[in-house]
Amino acid sequence: ASGVVAEWVPIADDGRDSVFGPEQTEAQYEAALAADPAARPRGAWWRCRAFLAGALPPDAPVGHRRVLVHCALGVNRSPTIVAAWLMDVWRWDSERAMRYIHKRRPVVNPVDEHLQQLAGFQQQLGVA
């Protein structure tokens, strides 16, 4: 196996940040935290999407297209990002994406706020 590539992207566990809002770089988030320790992360999806697109090139052999998306417990934030990826790449609606993930990891349980944001993202994508 080749080396490990990692990316840290802040997403609040309570779902009250704007995951699909305007992109915020790591430096911008750190500056916002320095100015206000209660600052909320925003736009995490766009950084995650860029990382996943680089880690999962469509021309790579199927067996070489693997990536681990993880949060503290693997039940809320990471499934939200994986669902968004499935919605974006495979044009699935949010319910289908969550069913697919839940079938593979039954403990998945995103907070309602993340599910609502996924529904909004589905509308942005124009997926029925």
TrEMBL record:
A biological-process GO annotation: negative regulation of MAPK cascade
Alphabetized UniProt keyword annotations: Hydrolase, Protein phosphatase
EC numbers: 3.1.3.48
CDD domains (UniProt xref): DSP (cd14498)
InterPro entries for this protein: Dual-sp_phosphatase_cat-dom, Prot-tyrosine_phosphatase-like, Tyr_Pase_AS, Tyr_Pase_dom, TYR_PHOSPHATASE_DUAL_dom
GO cellular component: cytoplasm
Record domain Tyrosine specific protein phosphatases: where: 63-116
Transmembrane segments: none
Domain of life: Eukaryota
Enzyme class, spelled out: hydrolase
Family: Belongs to the protein-tyrosine phosphatase family. Non-receptor class dual specificity subfamily.
The protein's name: protein-tyrosine-phosphatase
Native source species: Zooxanthella nutricula
